[in-house]
Amino acid sequence: MPLKRTVKDLVMEASARIRTIPMDDAETLLDDPETLFVDIRDVRELDREGMIPGAYHAPRGMLEFWVDPESPYHKPVFASGKSFVLYCGGAWRSALATAALQDMGLEPVAHMEGGFVAWKAAGKPVVPRPTKD
């Protein structure tokens, strides 16, 4: 059975209605205490490749549950009033996630152009995933 819409279609539709922050602009937000970078990649990707300094890890599969204050899985960081910049490996998952969170009413939320692969290739700062004590 052929699909009605492909993942590429969904990402293009999401990208047309969300805010995408250029990578260099995103880097200038690293020191902004009112901006939180949210890494939605799988923990294995973080272990293998590192992450953006100061980023908060919220796995893609739990993101909507962590954002929703009525969910038993809610994380208070998402009710902090900060601006959120989502990123994944190649900016596809983060485009879809940003659209979903925007639809939920989380504001302001955006995603980073190019994702972590482009960030790392451009020589931007990367740190190992923090270990849990």
Automatic annotation (TrEMBL):
Occurrences of domain Rhodanese (ranges): 31-128
Gene3D superfamilies per UniProt: Rhodanese-like domain (3.40.250.10)
SUPFAM superfamilies, per the entry: Rhodanese/Cell cycle control phosphatase (SSF52821)
InterPro entries membership: Rhodanese-like_dom, Rhodanese-like_dom_sf
Top-level taxon of the source organism: Bacteria
Any single Pfam family the record assigns to this protein: Rhodanese
Name of the featured protein: Rhodanese-like domain-containing protein
Species the sequence originates in: Tistrella arctica
